[in-house]
Design brief:
Structural class: alpha/beta
Order of helices and strands: EHEHEHEHEHEHHHHE
Bound molecules: nicotinamide-adenine-dinucleotide
Strand order of the largest sheet: 3-2-1-4-5-6-7
Helix content: 40-55%
Oligomer: single chain
């Protein structure tokens, strides 16, 4: 009888930007926990205010994520962390190690999509803020996780949530697209540098996932409805029509790929930026 290559028993995982009930990060936490990992659920803490149209998660969402995992029989703790603050990200890794003794899996999932307007209208602070969270935040996570994994000497898995907007430029998402292209570049460099330590580094590129990022008042449906002079519901329907598999993506679709990359079965894959888009993006 072979071993179960999907098992994450006794692995310690950290996921950033993971508290939202309908978000991708929370689904990743649920699946890693279901596969046996101990999960450190992280997101902006009470200090955060959220800048501009971006809303910080409601108080209690981090604890809610932990409660959900525990109710399903998993193990988790919550550690607040703003990924734009390098000290916070280092402290997040330290919290995982001091509680559970090690770090095996780090998922850079935190992300924002703000100022969804044409490039000529984008403000410099909005552009900077997007890079700060999506790209520099991911850099902080890779660096902190890699330092710990190198110290441990037993390899590890780093997985970055990029986007199909990191493969092809998307109108109205100049800063977001640029940040996700950057995440893919960073993923390749880190994979080349960290391979000799047995650490794999990959990006997952989701398509159109039905989360707050898409369906909030400042979300993607609303933004394209403005651009094309139509309704958010029409944009939603048109988007579905462009997806070969004929449906929007669920957070669990993304989490399935992350769990695979984190597992022994994904052990010979590194430096990749893997689409999980129902065929919406193919390169
Ligand atoms: P979401 O808004 O539900 O989740 C993003 C999370 O990041 C939130 O919990 C938010 O609080 C957190 N966050 C924001 N700024 C942070 C900071 N400074 N420090 C720590 N956490 C911070 O949206 P989601 O759709 O679940 O997005 C998760 C990831 O997936 C993001 O990286 C996003 O870019 C990416 N993605 C989403 C889609 C989509 O269609 N929804 C598609 C492709 C990629």
């Amino acid at each position: 009888m072979g071993t179960d290559k999907s098992s994450l028993n006794d692995k310690v995982a950290v996921v950033t930007g993971a508290s939202r009930p309908g978000g991708i990060g929370r689904a990743i936490c649920r699946q890693l926990a279901a596969a046996g990992a101990v999960v450190v659920v992280s997101d902006l803490g009470p200090r955060a205010t959220g800048d501009g149209p971006f809303q910080a998660p409601a108080a209690g969402e981090l604890d809610g994520a932990v409660a959900e995992i525990e109710a399903a029989g998993g193990r988790a703790i919550a550690v607040p962390c703003d990924v734009t603050d390098p000290g916070d990200v280092d402290a997040l890794v330290e919290a995982a190690v001091s509680k559970f003794g090690r770090l095996d899996i780090f998922v850079n999932n935190a992300g924002i999509a703000i100022e969804s307007v044409e490039l000529v209208e984008v403000s410099t602070p909005g552009f900077r803020k997007t890079l700060d969270v999506n790209l520099i935040g991911t850099f902080h996570g890779i660096r902190a996780a890699a330092r710990q994994m190198i110290r441990q000497g037993a390899g590890g898995r780093i997985i970055n949530t990029a986007s199909q907007a990191g493969k092809s430029g998307w109108p109205m998402l100049s800063a977001y697209s640029a940040s996700k292209f950057g995440v893919i570049g960073l993923t390749q460099v880190a994979a080349k540098e960290l391979g000799r330590h047995g650490i794999t580094v990959n990006a997952v590129c989701p398509g159109t996932v039905d989360t707050e990022l898409s369906n909030s008042p400042d979300g993607i449906w609303q933004m394209y409805a403005r651009m094309y002079g139509t309704t958010p519901e029409q944009v939603r329907q048109d988007t579905i029509a462009q997806i070969p598999l004929g449906r929007l993506q669920t957070p669990d679709d993304v989490a399935d790929l992350v769990a695979f990359l984190a597992s022994e079965a994904g052990g010979y894959i590194t430096g990749e930026a893997i689409n999980t888009t129902g065929g919406q993006e193919m390169h």
